[in-house]
User: Fold these one by one.
Assistant:
Number 1:
Amino acid sequence: MLDYRLLEALSAVIETGGFEKAAQKLHLTQSAVSQRIRQLEHRLGQPVVLRRSPPVATALGRRLNNHLQQVKQLELGLLDEEQGEPIKIRLTVNADSMATWLPQAIAACPLSTQMDFDLVVEDQEVGLDRMRNGEVMACICAEAQPVNGGAVSSLGVLRYRALASPAFVERYRTQSEPKRLVDAPCLIFNRDDRLQHQFLEALGLPPPVRQHRVPSSEGFVEMALHGMGYGMLPELQVADYLASGQLVDVGPVFILDVPLYWHFWQTESAPLTALRRTVLDHASRLLQG
């Protein structure tokens, strides 16, 4: 029989990335958290966390954390919605969805005022790792294959264009000589962001030489507007700038449709089902089909 106090300690260490932060989250001492992890490992006969900086869950540790997340889903389904306690919802989302269509979709859920959201921002290509490791209740990402114990629903596609300011295009002459894009400053969200690389690859060009790393959707747009670089931007986010001519195609018109999916556990609770259905409904109207 699993001791869920011990699993909560494991989950906190994985989620926060350290024993000290896990102790703060659980309102325990660091030694108490360490003791619970050791107790769990003693009962199971093998390690659940590799003592690194930050700690890394073993394969068993990830399975246990995954199991705990599904148990939490079942517990949510047993809660009385009228009891007045907020429902804690932890989701992995991509930054561009947060900057465009997702807040409106979440707010439309009838239960949203009863929910406390913890939104973990990850690139759409890698966000599913959080769910695979049992760290979140649901995930929006570009991966169509569900995790073990999970299911998936298609949301639609977020359309991207390779854009920059007119001054940038004129300075680097990227429309008349696309090969100059390789040496021109390129905007990337983080090290997992490969959209710009896909753009250059589609033009038969090597990866960008110069890169500005801008881990903010709003900052990404501002950097492009002020001529600091070019990048793949969601049409939904920059429609007004395209209409006004403040942003233009940096080279040949290039459209990249990134599919988005909502991943959820098969043990999905009623509140999460309501949220998912509302988000899917709004995505069908706000995203490309």
Number 2:
Amino acid sequence: MRRHRIALVMIAVVSLLGGCAQSTSGHVGSASISHTEPPLPAGATPAPTDRPTPAPAPEGDCGDPTASLRPFPDAGTPPPMPTVDAIRARGRLIVGLDTGSNLMSFRDPATGTIQGFDVDMAREIARDLFGDPDRLEYRILTSANREKALQESLVDIVAKTMTITCERREKVAFSTQYFEAHQRVLVVKGSRIRGPADLGGKRVCAARGTTSLERLQQVTPTADILTVPMWSDCLVVLQQGQVDAVSSDDTILAGLVSQDPYLEIVGDSMGAEPYGIGITRSNEDLVRFVNGTLERIRLDGSWTRSYNQWLSMLGPSPAPPSAVYQD
């Protein structure tokens, strides 16, 4: 009887193990391995394909768009400066920029400070306002909300690779030009894309609210464009293979290359991008004050020192852009 019971137990155990093995084997055999594509950055959306290609802005509809107000004269009785006085009374200059544009404005991971060529422009303005370049408060903006931030007086100035155009001058004021960038194309090394002519039918990343996006739609209307809030998002989707190229100003693309040595800038310029400091349109005294700072740094070497520190990978330092005044 005892041997009989042991035999029954052994049979049950073997049956149980066999059933488990069969179940497990069946599970493995029926399982399928799938690979999920990395998610797109927050806010990334395909540009509409059913919209008409934007026509180039008419030339000359505002004269020279880079012409600005002349600085205050150094001698004589200072004119009223209500905006400048209010900023000085506040004790800090509020600057709109982006902390994801390496070389132009970015947060140094080692120190936590915000640095770059555009930041240097803002620091020089603060130096002339307060005698202290650190009297700054930063507000982070996407390219698409720069104009709104100025119109609603959320910032005093925008120092964020902002191209001066006639269309934008209807909404905000600009300083004189402080840099001339050129729109080009960024790809992974070894790509068959060698310039703008190769972008047709390719997926290209561009930031919303930029002249780069508008020109890309004009030059390569058959490109499949992915729009994102920040240029740093374009780096992510290019590295993940979700786009074939990025098109933007060479200053911005150089910043992306500085973060990834497997990328390269290719092709000729698609067009010039004259940068200006954005200012609320009604604040003419601040426009003149900022232009005075820009005139100083053209002459005292500050502009060249900043270029050599941040943008030398674009080539030897050019002369700073000459100021054009409308009065």
